[in-house]
UniProtKB/TrEMBL annotation:
CDD domains: AdoMet_MTases. Residues 58-154 form the Methyltransferase type domain. Coiled coil: none annotated. Signal peptide: none annotated. It holds the Pfam family Methyltransf_12. SUPFAM superfamilies: S-adenosyl-L-methionine-dependent methyltransferases. This is Class I SAM-dependent methyltransferase. One of its GO terms (biological process) is methylation.
Length: 275
């Protein structure tokens, strides 16, 4: 990874440290309420994951751990990893208040193998706004492969590149129209964003507001995992999101939100296995 990319990832780390205070106080996360991590999961995720009780589960790029604790609730030996020290501190407190045994580790995802002491896992879970902060998916896929035991599974549930192209949050003055605003495919380098306001409610972020994101098409994700020696077992595309990105979205039976029309993918789930 180039020095420039390392500098951008350090800027992202500082931004996520600064975001944490805003996110902890937001209604979007609602961490002061009784934790309900199930609301962050589509029902089909648990169908694909199967039974996790008694298994070793690692959640990469876990932020506040609002999803991480769901695995502990289901009886998994659970570890969360994030590069933001503020996020790891917050996640540790959230798990403790919920009475759940979760280990959190602060590390860049590319350093996860060393940071975890070579420990291997039955399941590596990640996504929902994680991959866009990684410049090198080939390297990421190699790390995932090292973290998995033989026969272990990666489960990636990520915002669809089409959603990223439409914009995962409204731009100032934007109407309800579905307009392609950003690249679907990667290859044009990072996108520099002003992250003074994040995707949650709440006040402006104070301090570090530079953010860098990288676009990754589905082909880039799949090919990186195949090259790392993982077998793709399932790929889902879903028209639902856990929050109403557009004001005319309607509540689905799952409790998540979908567009009345057109029916387009907004999220995808990918299950891969280490041979």
């Amino acid at each position: 990874m180039t020095d420039a990319y390392e500098r951008m990832m350090r800027a992202n780390q500082a931004n996520w440290d600064a975001r944490t205070t805003v996110h902890l106080a937001s209604r979007f996360y609602g961490v002061e309420e009784e934790p309900d991590p199930s609301r962050w999961f589509a029902p089909w995720e648990w169908d694909d994951l199967g039974e996790v009780a008694g298994r070793d589960v690692l959640h990469l790029q876990c932020h506040l751990g609002t999803e991480t604790i769901a695995f502990a609730q289901r009886g998994a030996r659970t570890v969360g990893l994030d590069f933001s020290a503020a996020s790891v501190t917050a996640a540790t407190g959230i798990a403790a208040r919920a009475g759940l045994d979760v280990t959190y580790v602060r590390a860049n995802v590319y350093d996860a193998v060393r940071a975890l002491g070579g420990r291997r896992f039955d399941v590596v879970y990640t996504g929902k706004g994680a991959l866009c902060y990684l410049p090198d998916l080939d390297r990421w896929a190699g790390v995932v492969a090292e973290l998995l035991r033989p026969g272990g599974h990666l489960y990636l549930v990520e915002f669809h590149p089409l959603l990223n192209s439409l914009g995962p949050k409204p731009t100032p003055g934007a109407g309800p129209e579905l307009l392609l605003r950003h690249d679907y495919l990667g290859g044009n380098g990072p996108v520099h964003r002003d992250a003074t306001h994040t995707y949650t409610d709440g006040p402006a972020v104070e301090g570090a507001t530079d953010s860098y994101e990288w676009m990754h098409g589905l082909d880039e994700v799949v090919n990186a995992l195949v090259e790392a020696g993982l077998d793709i077992r399932r790929l889902r595309e879903s028209p639902e999101l856990p929050w109403p990105r557009w004001p005319h979205m309607t509540r689905a039976a799952s409790g998540w939100w979908r567009l009345p029309a057109p029916r387009i993918p907004l999220l995808y789930g990918l299950l891969a296995r280490r041979s």
